[in-house]
């Protein structure tokens, strides 16, 4: 399929928006032979996950994708065959006029936020607003039939399986990041928003009988880590030990390396949307820090996912997972919730792998988008 695609990304939360759209753009090029322009309004944020990006250039090619700076003052551009407004971002008015002036109107999609709520499948694919005869459609990623699925590159789960089956490959990768975990230690990653609950969780890890090596990619949670350690100088490369807990700060890495980092860890705390999905593909126990919304409506979204994610767990294990996730996302005490989860670790770990494999049976998001376009034309 040789259709041209324009994907618009307005960077709101640092890395989630660009993380999703960058993965999608590359997959459309590599697996579906699409011509893709990715319009981004913040190239400095993009540079964090793709170091080759030159944030001073207006146009450049990376991995077959034409990356364009989305300027404040829009210059005339021809509209593509498929136009994606990621996460309901507002397209430039002049570009919308260009869509309307095409001899054949483009397929205009609002790629929405990921949710497990029941109403999503009923709204997926429905028409939205029109602009001068150009119809926009809702497109919802999701976890169940009737949604757009999740981003998953071809062969991803097999590559993950092979990586996790080879301990030496994992150790070599970690050493490349400056990480040397002690034998028998629990390896964990922490990528989250600011959270007042962190101190209690770190206390529990420090007092645990098992050693934990906690890897913290630089980001918004780092201030809370600093306060708990009492070290305001904490920076990339820092390594601090408190009783049974080793805390190590990692630099931001490209997406492929972040995937491998998740694959190495026994437990992953993630945030937002992109890292949330990638933690599920890791097949390991995890904790999601959902993006906070006004009037706590994000908690409804959290509950919808928990109901789906934990449905096959035993009642006690289900309660343990739910208690930990709820405590983390309401900034409640974490100590007892974490200890309780550890009591159900074998079941929770097996479930994480099974959930991953089940989700891998669905069509992936890029393939679903392409099929939607083919059906539309």
Automatic annotation (TrEMBL):
Residues making up the signal peptide according to the UniProt record: none
Keywords, in A-Z order: Elongation factor, Glycosyltransferase, Protein biosynthesis, Transferase
Catalytic function, reaction form: dTDP-beta-L-rhamnose + L-arginyl-[protein] = N(omega)-(alpha-L-rhamnosyl)-L-arginyl-[protein] + dTDP + H(+)
A GO term, aspect molecular function: translation elongation factor activity
Superkingdom field: Bacteria
Family: Belongs to the glycosyltransferase 104 family.
Function: Protein-arginine rhamnosyltransferase that catalyzes the transfer of a single rhamnose to elongation factor P (EF-P) on 'Lys-32', a modification required for EF-P-dependent rescue of polyproline stalled ribosomes.
Name the record gives this protein: Protein-arginine rhamnosyltransferase
